[in-house]
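R.M. (postdoc): so does anyone remember the format we settled on? I'll just put the structure tokens first.
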């Protein structure tokens, strides 16, 4: 069983942080491993980029902090390798296309060598992704696809047909990333529509801000993604052991 499949075997608890946020390679790896200690079984490792158009102020600030300590694509992969040396947790890389486009095949190869299990390129349209999808299949990386509230059923089928690796990421809120006060009323219907279009597990993210929302999502979907809420904790300079305790509370881990 692949690491991603293993994560979804009993509900995937997914957490995002920006690589390099918190003080560079060593400290960033420590924060990711603290999430694993807190019960997270799938990590999203964000590669910092100067113009993250899909992200709200919290993750934008994290990317600025990471770039300020000279975090690059290569040092982000170094963080992945450090995590992999300590853990068999599933890992996907969350990136924009600009930082990797000049050497896409080389980046994907190095990502696989570092220990990544999948890649999510947030701003790469399906119509321009054939080369990316080809290299992912060749290397054994899962290409993670994002579905939005505005994605119609026909478009879902186009984007998801034929995919047999990874999972579907449903970004359940309109707009950019960031914590919200609640979940949209149409969430059950949207998850059902995705299930009609794909046999892959469905993870829900965007706006998840507390343990009650996590519980609601995991009752409906196969996984839950928490990002901005956790990134905020690094902005407060939380210690890794404190992040572990907070994560256990968030995901109801004993």
């Amino acid at each position: 069983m692949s690491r991603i499949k293993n994560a979804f075997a009993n509900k995937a608890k997914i957490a995002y942080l920006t690589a390099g946020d918190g003080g560079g390679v060593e400290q960033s790896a420590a924060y990711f491993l603290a999430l694993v200690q807190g019960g997270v079984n799938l990590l999203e490792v964000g590669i910092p980029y100067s113009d993250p158009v899909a992200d709200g102020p919290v993750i934008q600030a994290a990317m600025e902090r990471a770039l300020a300590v000279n975090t690059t694509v290569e040092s982000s992969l170094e963080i992945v390798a450090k995590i992999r040396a300590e853990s068999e947790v599933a890992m996907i890389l969350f990136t924009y296309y600009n930082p990797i486009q000049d050497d896409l095949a080389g980046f994907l190869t190095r990502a696989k060598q570092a220990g990544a299990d999948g890649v999510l390129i947030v701003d790469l349209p399906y119509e321009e992704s054939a080369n990316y999808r080809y290299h992912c299949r060749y290397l054994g990386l899962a290409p993670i696809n994002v579905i939005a509230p505005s994605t119609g059923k026909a478009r879902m089928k186009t984007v998801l047909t034929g995919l047999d690796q990874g999972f579907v990421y449903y970004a359940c809120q309109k707009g950019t990333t960031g914590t919200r006060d609640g979940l949209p009323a149409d969430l059950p219907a949207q998850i059902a529509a995705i299930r009609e279009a794909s046999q892959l597990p469905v993870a829900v993210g965007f706006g998840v801000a507390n343990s009650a929302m996590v519980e609601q999502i995991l009752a409906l979907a196969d996984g839950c993604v928490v990002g901005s809420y956790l990134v905020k904790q690094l902005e407060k300079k939380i210690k890794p052991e404190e992040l572990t305790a907070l994560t256990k509370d968030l995901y109801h881990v004993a």
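R.M.: ...and that's the designed sequence above, right after the tokens. Also worth knowing: DSSP finds eleven helices and nine strands in the chain. The chain has a mean pLDDT of 93.
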